[in-house]
Design goal:
mainly alpha; 3-stranded antiparallel beta sheet; 21 helices
Length: 547
Amino acid sequence: MTGTRSASAPADEPRVLNWFGRAAEGWSFSRITRAGLIATILISIGSYGAGALPANDPTRHIPVVGLLRHGAVGLHVSLAMYYFGLVLLVGTWLILGRLLLTGSTSGTEAIGREVIAPRVLRRTMLLWMAPLLASMPLASMDLYSYAAQAQLARLGRDPYTFTPADLPGKFLDNVAWKWVDTPSPYGPLWVTVSRWVATLTGDHALISVLVLRLIPFAAIVLTARLLPGLAARFGGRGDLTLWIAIANPLVLVHGVGGGHNDAVMVAFIVAGLAVVLRPNANWRHLAVGAALMSLSAAVKAPGAVAVAFVVPVYLAGRPGVTTRDVKDWLRACAVAVVAAVPVFALITWIVGYGNGWTKQISPGVPVINFMSIPTMLAVAYRLVTGEPHAGTLVDHTVRAFRRVGSVVSALLLIFLWFRSVRGAAIQLLALALLTVVILSPAVQPWYFTWTLTIGALFIVAPRPLSWIAAASVALTLLTRPMGSSLEMAPYVPAVIAAGLASRALLGPVVHRREKPLSGTIQDGGNVTVAPPGDDLLPTTVADTGRR
């Protein structure tokens, strides 16, 4: 590297981006692992002063933690630790992406084989997640809503009728004000599991929250176990799939730290795909896969989209079967319906609360942000017409735009489903989930993990991966650690920062052609390319920075 210009710093790059790219050169996989662990430890420590803290927090009496709660100084120190850790995590994740794409942290030519075995990556990701399980809830107060709704169910009250406001005390005190008078919008399976947690933890609010967070964590671990095998079915790479769908800061902060049950819904979808896409899958596998995907809908309503697409995905994965054969389609649809509907009905009957949760899916959701296209258009219309409180009030105009958005979403889903008859079913499933997100009445950053996980199965080209990386970083930055969303003004700098970071570390790879490589790096300057199912190959090459 001495005496030559780095390949990762082209002459036409801005100087700041050149420096950022050069700073990543020479990082081994072990150094990346350590940096990610340090990042999540800092985030976890910072959360005790700047996270989504409970109203009556017993940890404030711990001497060291108490200092982080001491006035403005404690808050600023906590925020500094959180954001320093977050920046380090984002940078480390992008460096890992560069390594996986090129086989070197200074490489510029994309390669077509796995660089690090998925099993090795999973261990690293578990290491990164561990500190976040000991943190306060991150970037959202939703875990406290889960705990309050679980207490309602434990006490025998219908969470689809009663609200946290009917549960005075410490559980109510921790719920975000927007959801105090809102019944549970979650499916019967989630209500059942959270009720079990409430029965186990009793009247201990913080313990209930921390135990509830273990459920999405377990779902993420299951998803990480299944994704590499699925990616191989679609010509994807197991290591890149895990990098995008699991190691992603958006997943770590919101899925693990925030404990959102979206991860559970996604895990059931991925499990269903793993069953129906087995090499010798038959009608029994289709039935099991449809039943698993119906469980995703029993957690959150968008899981129903996956249930609808299970048939085209299954038929597209069967060799020798034409996806245009009407008989095959009718038979497969009948099997899926016969499997999915009774499973969903059985869970609903066991819970005993009926389908009251579906009533909560309405255009009147008291959230306004600019990731929802109908909401954004409604706010723009209100601004043009000079109506007051255009960006803060959910009125009849906003509800009308959201209703139109729901109709458009339904029509697009129908179109995508029939389009899947001609193939590309898994790609259209990812697009269908994205359609549901951006046309929903209200959108949260972690909603994009639905389509992100499916898209990670087949996206391997550097250019779309760099766009996904930039979007993931931007979405991660759009929420404060204490759970309040950023206003419109910081959206632009968040997107610019994410774009620059992604451009500095992944940009040099985007315009290069793919080049197969027989061996790359692993640890201490040497990594080995591993085919699916293996850990490492015996051949290694030195990390010289030249390819």
